[in-house]
Design goal:
Elements: H1 14-18, E1 21-26, H2 29-41, E2 49-65, H3 68-91, H4 99-125, E3 132-147, H5 152-165
């Protein structure tokens, strides 16, 4: 079940955003943001606009294979950071200054060892899981800039001027 998103007092209702008029269509989100920046530069009330991505796709880029050795190494790295944090935290409460480095070093060492063990076990016990590491992102086929009906003609005119200016 998806988690509900919090709405701020300033964010418009989704139904009112979808009722707005399309004033420009762009192939990338950056191009749509550039158009809204152009509107803002020319004094247009951009709070009456929105960017709507349509035909959404999830793209998953495979970054590499995850082996037990790689999972163990990643676990050791994560554990070392946590152990370093615990060692520093404990060293703040010691009265012997000679114990500071041993607490930090011990935390780092024990954190790396336990992290490596945990990484190895976690990878070994996941049966049928993914054997690769991937990064996911959502992209749209096109991005529509929409504006309230009362100001849509002004936005269209400004975006037409932008298109004329950027022609080769």
């Amino acid at each position: 079940m998806p988690t509900p998103r919090l709405r701020t007092a300033m964010s418009p209702d989704v139904s009112t955003v979808l009722e707005r008029q399309t004033v420009g269509t762009f192939p990338t989100h950056d191009a749509a943001e550039h158009a809204v920046d152009h509107l803002a530069t020319h004094g247009f009330p951009v709070e009456r606009t929105a960017i709507i991505g349509t035909d959404l796709r999830m793209v998953e880029a495979v970054l590499g294979r995850v082996t037990r050795a790689r999972a163990t190494l990643a676990g050791a790295g994560s554990g070392a950071w946590f152990g370093l944090f615990v060692g520093i935290l404990l060293s703040l409460f010691t009265t012997r200054h000679s114990a500071v480095f041993s607490l930090i070093g011990g935390g780092l060492l024990y954190g790396a060892v336990f992290g490596a063990i945990w990484g190895f076990i976690a990878h070994a016990t996941v049966s049928g899981g993914h054997e690769f590491l991937a990064r996911s992102t959502v992209v749209a086929a096109r991005y529509d800039v929409v504006a309230d009906t009362e100001v849509a003609d002004d936005a269209k005119n400004l975006l037409i001027k932008l298109a004329w200016r950027e022609q080769p």
